[in-house]
Amino acid sequence: MRLVQLSRHSIAFPSPEAALREPNGLLALGGDLSPARLLMAYQRGIFPWFSPGDPILWWSPDPRAVLWPENFHVSRSMKRFHKTSPYRVTLNHAFGQVIDGCSDDRDEGTWITPDIVMAYHRLHELGHAHSIEVWEGDELVGGMYGVAQGSLFCGESMFSRRVNASKTALLVFSEEFARLGGKLIDCQVLNSHTASLGAVEIPRRDYLQYLAELRLAPLPSHFWVPRRLFPAR
């Protein structure tokens, strides 16, 4: 297996099965972050991830971390917190603020470069990338964003500036997503935080099969219309 150099003149990708085993899932480098290329990547189970100053790197890890929304794990303490939550949760009200929050709130640095921010803004404007916002009063205190693929949602990043804010974003979104036909949330690579919330690893080939089926099963057209998700009133 070898790393593939992408052309700026074609949005084609190699098969995810050609990805390296070490580092796990690295498939290709180069190309660009145009909407057409990004959408082609997501349709094939591939996503960009690279550090500032590096070339664009494209990944499709094996195994893949996923979360079935109905299996979201709510701890006892989180249940108690959510019953009297001070937060309000909205959908697609402040995409720019959310991606900026995901970029800024990282002690270890960020892969969400200005080019990434601009690229996902374009996807949002085209109706493919979406945000979930958590507010305390009028202050944005947490949220997450990702890319829709039919009834599968590819989560990209989340942030939290208050206790349980990012957990609230994922909990409320998972419930609404499942209620209206959402089937699977892609978490890309498992970490301790997503594992604690119910994410698990599955073989890449299984993820690609789910993706092929679910991206052709759209949610109701009104699902992504900007609205309040929590509290209901």
From TrEMBL:
GO CC annotation terms, alphabetical: cytoplasm
Compartment(s) where it occurs, according to its Swiss-Prot or TrEMBL record: Cytoplasm
Top-level lineage group: Bacteria
One of the GO biological process terms: protein catabolic process
Entry's EC annotation: 2.3.2.6
One Pfam family, short name: Leu_Phe_trans
Keywords carried by this UniProt record: Acyltransferase, Cytoplasm, Transferase
GO molecular function list: leucyl-tRNA--protein transferase activity
Protein name in UniProt: Leucyl/phenylalanyl-tRNA--protein transferase
